Amino acid sequence: MVLVFVAFVLLIEAWKWYHFFRLDELPEFNRSVLEVMRQPLEDRVITISRAKYSTEYPASFMLVASMNPCPCGYYGHPKKKCVCNEYQRSHYMSKISGPLLDRIDLQIEVQPVDFDQMSSKAPGEPSAAIRQRVIAARALQERRFKDEPGIYCNAQMTPSLLHKYAEPDAAGLEKLKDAMERMNMSARAYDRILKVARTIADLEGCADVLTHHIMEAIAYRNLDRPTYLGTNS
Ligand SMILES: [Zn+2]
């Protein structure tokens, strides 16, 4: 099993200008180095401060990162046995801080693909069809924000724009409230779930954010669960 993270922004500037930042084996990086990404992931700028001056540089990018679930790589594997103890697993996961995870919109466990699936001749959905859906969703967002200066995609929505464009239906709001309390999520996670849910609805061509969009967005925050390996400090 491999964990894959995407700092959403699927459908943000990165999509347009292809600014991707890919980090494999995330916990192998020094934690203090990883923490530096918190500012650009949140504000899309990097501030360099020296004794007499400070300056800002634009740093808008899509982060795609991956890691194993434990040092041996087999925790949660359907067929192989993990040889790590609880401390090793917890220590490994704790290299990724909670505040950094907070800024990552999609956190997904990817199960290993067995031989039958690999050798299957059944055709999957072609990338070209998916691309068309993304282009349509992008165009929809550009139309939505045409009167909002400097905003052209869901990822850039401010709290007031979230209220205006991504308010879920009553049942969706109730599900979100329940998940927030159960998973002890932060306000930042709340905003990001709404942005992801708005985007899922856009990909479906749905004008409103409905309960199943909210549920899907919550499901993409695997590692937000406080019980996940008992980590996230
Ligand atoms: Zn292991």
Explain this structure to me?
Residues 8-15 have low confidence and may be disordered. The chain is globular and about 55 Å long. It has 233 residues and is α+β, with helices and mostly antiparallel strands. The protein has two domains: 2-113, no CATH class; 127-223, Helicase, Ruva Protein, domain 3 (Orthogonal Bundle), CATH 1.10.8. The chain has helices at 13-17, 31-35, 38-43, 86-93, 98-102, 115-118, 127-144, 159-165, 170-182, 187-204, 211-219; strands at 2-6, 20-23, 45-49, 54-58, 62-67, 106-110. The chain contains eleven helices and six strands. A four-stranded mixed beta sheet has the order 2-5-1-6. Zinc ion (ZN) binds at residues 70-72, 74-75, 82-84.
Outline the secondary-structure elements:
Blueprint: E1 2-6, H1 13-17, E2 20-23, H2 31-35, H3 38-43, E3 45-49, E4 54-58, E5 62-67, H4 86-93, H5 98-102, E6 106-110, H6 115-118, H7 127-144, H8 159-165, H9 170-182, H10 187-204, H11 211-219
Parallel strand pairs: 2-5
Antiparallel strand pairs: 1-5, 1-6, 3-4
Helix pairs in contact: 7-10, 9-11, 10-11
Could you name the key traits of this structure?
four-stranded mixed sheet, Helicase, Ruva Protein, domain 3, alpha+beta, 42% helix, binds zinc ion, 2 domains, 233 residues, globular, two-stranded antiparallel ribbon
Task: Summarize this structure briefly.
With 233 residues, the chain is α+β, with helices and mostly antiparallel strands. It has eleven helices and six strands.
